[in-house]
């Protein structure tokens, strides 16, 4: 089974082309569309999204993940097999696999360089999604062993981010993305929140030089409309939201990846 | 076969997560995406949409329908098996199943409460689509009998709506939704229209205290550009539209569910 | 395998309805969504898009292509089997098949008129996608021979367009569509470009009475941000783009299908 994740949009025929390529190589391949309408050209934001959905797929799933950075430059196409779950990630080595590599461990990592497994076109430029990544996923789904695709690599490129941590009386972590409703996702596990805070605590949120106050709650309706709350999102991380409002706009956030601390307000 | 219908949008990874959960439970499950980009948090509008597409699916289809109301409150997760067509609807009991229940009849109705068939996560909050509804659909597709999921219920919650009816010399019904082109859908069957009106009749449309005149026709091109018409939409219901125009804006509609009457203008 | 291509949008239940119809006729049919969010009511633009993705699908693929013109009028529903690749195209005969017919050759062409293979509904109007095209694709996928669907036709309707050509010292062709980034697609094969031009050449683009200067390059990053370039797009055609900009807006294009010439600037 191939779980397909790109930032190409649902209004592009590129996704369709890649499905055609996969089915040409392996007529029996099963392709599951996961998401194609996500923040474009942003491997870091999408690394967090990949991390949030990957774990709900069955053992042995092949994840075909094509999110490239906007700017050029050379990054290797890779296949990463994980220790836990026996997952295969077919992706550019640009940080996109950072969190799933840390979560599931790297069992084997190869560069995709064996042209035998490329989709050959006599075009002068290359559409890597079609010509390299999709064929690799298709051949993997046919049972071609990972070693066949190219030389083993030592390690993937990791992007830097603030690891979530409990620091005496506060939590630190990072804002990782927001959704279309303006609900703001952090990388801080909900259990860390429950270690330091209890329901209805008033929390000081610090983001760079800005401070906000929010309630530590379970669900939106625990606060009044318009009030800020911190609560566990369904992925198991703390989310900052406004009941019937837009927290991202209220907090005037414009860049993901900023550090955040959460501390109980003493009263 | 699982027909998948939500209001989560095509820009959310939640749909992908649920596919992962389903395939984890039943690797052989076939998932058909029906629609994920529909009016959010509106069980009533989506009840009409569900009713319009369900009947074209084969007998025995499992419909996984996750449209919750915006506000909280407790509604039970249910599985409804229908008398006709042998359909299974896995959905929140919030009115979403009103029209398909009336159309196909309820053969058996259970609350989903047997935690054996939940997708267990140690999260403090619950994403019902992932944790309850998707697993139920997946286990049904594996052949688990409906009785296994929980206790039988007497009846589902129905929302109220104006049943379409022929009243002497006029028709009454409700405006149920509009599409992105501003074509306005009613719940009045086309046959009722043909009982009272004939092609090219001038019709008085009354919606609350507003009145409009339209022609009773077959297709858009039966009227001039800019003219209002009433005609049978492909689902078999009367639609109000403007040839090359936007009827919803012209009629200044802003809420679905308002009553409508249609009467021939005497001349 | 049925590759499904419409202009109905991802926010419409019509795509879902057609999947239901197909699965009702052939439970084993495999449906691959290619694209549903493309320029509406435009068979010509979509003929180019169809041509760009079709070739990457395996031999024997059934392409279900429902793009109708905005205005009414009668066009026949057809099935076209191609000489090369053994493809089947199920589509309205409105020019949509122009380029794939020229690329792969017509082996057999029939009008879909045998009502035995319609999806019968007692509705007074017809939704051809649901009632004629989808059933035809489904029955084809079950092995019904093309001759069964209706009488053979002589030829399809072709739309007119400027065939790409090398004219002494310049190239001529047509602007065929643009994407959401404003990258402008031509129908001129990249090889024609390489015949007349070399990397870094300055090129005069003429579109009607407007002239622009661009560099002939391989990739976006070969020019500075804001500069215009011409380069081979992944489909193998020349694309006009601005590095980190919107070429369509810069060139004030508003209609596809205009002629274009490319000539090296003498210096």
TrEMBL record, chains A, B, C:
Boundaries of every S-adenosyl-l-methionine hydroxide adenosyltransferase N-terminal domain copy: 2-150
SUPFAM superfamilies from the UniProt entry: Bacterial fluorinating enzyme, C-terminal domain (SSF101852), Bacterial fluorinating enzyme, N-terminal domain (SSF102522)
One Pfam family cited in the UniProt record for this chain: SAM_HAT_C
Gene3D superfamilies according to UniProt: Bacterial fluorinating enzyme like, S-adenosyl-l-methionine hydroxide adenosyltransferase, N-terminal
Domain S-adenosyl-l-methionine hydroxide adenosyltransferase C-terminal, first and last residues per copy: 173-255
Entry keywords, A to Z: S-adenosyl-L-methionine
S-adenosyl-L-methionine is among the record's keywords: yes
Record-stated family: Belongs to the SAM hydrolase / SAM-dependent halogenase family.
Name of this chain's protein: S-adenosyl-l-methionine hydroxide adenosyltransferase
